[in-house]
């Protein structure tokens, strides 16, 4: 079971996502929102909308994507479908970078140290940070604001960059 707060948190974790009340957009295109009945509306391509409706009993395909009763869907499933809606709405270069980042393995992105771990590696790659020099140019607060980059990863990045 999820809530409107979960939808908001999930939607805003994606790069470039913004909120206008209860509507969430990327590059000016709404990818998720709450309707007047408190259901989530996810703007998915028709094939993905049909797939979600087939997999999730709380979801109903519509002409604009899918409406889903938040009380009837688990958090991981909502996270997945919100991400799919974000990818469909994001500019192609941003969507491609985020998709590639999802497969990023620690120690395999630029010269980022393996010790920062997979979540931090993915978060940095999704933000377009693939080198120690790029990470060093960011403040500790900017690094920590990336979902997946914790205090340990910040410390390791600073040590690896010589600072």
Structural features, described:
This protein is α+β, with helices and mostly antiparallel strands and 163 residues long. It has eight helices and six strands, in the order αββββαββαααααα. Helix 1 (4-12) packs across helix 3 and helix 4 (92-102) packs antiparallel against helix 5 (118-126). Strands 1-2-3-4-6-5 form a six-stranded antiparallel beta sheet. It has two domains: 4-98, no CATH class; 103-160. The longest helix has 15 residues, at 75-89. This is Helix-hairpin-helix domain-containing protein. It comes from Glycomyces endophyticus.
Defining traits:
163 residues; Helix-hairpin-helix domain-containing protein
Summarize the SSE layout with pairings.
Elements: H1 4-12, E1 17-20, E2 23-26, E3 29-34, E4 40-42, H2 46-55, E5 59-62, E6 65-68, H3 75-89, H4 92-102, H5 118-126, H6 132-136, H7 140-144, H8 151-160
Antiparallel strand pairs: 1-2, 2-3, 3-4, 4-6, 5-6
Helix pairs in contact: 1-3, 3-4, 4-5
């Amino acid at each position: 079971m999820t809530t409107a707060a979960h939808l908001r948190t999930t939607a805003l974790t994606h790069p470039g996502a913004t909120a206008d009340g209860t509507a969430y957009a990327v590059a000016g295109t709404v990818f998720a929102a709450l309707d007047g009945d408190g259901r989530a509306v996810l703007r998915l391509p028709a094939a993905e909308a049909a797939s979600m409706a087939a997999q999730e009993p709380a979801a109903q395909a519509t002409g604009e994507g899918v409406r889903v009763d938040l009380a009837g869907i688990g958090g991981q499933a909502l996270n997945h479908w919100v991400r799919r809606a974000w990818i469909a709405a994001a500019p192609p270069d941003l969507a491609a970078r985020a998709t590639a980042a999802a497969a990023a393995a620690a120690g395999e992105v630029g010269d980022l140290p393996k010790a920062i771990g997979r979540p931090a590696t993915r978060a940095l790659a999704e933000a377009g940070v693939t080198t120690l020099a790029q990470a060093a140019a960011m403040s500790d607060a900017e690094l920590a604001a990336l979902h997946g980059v914790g205090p340990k990863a910040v410390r390791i990045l600073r040590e690896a960059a010589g600072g």
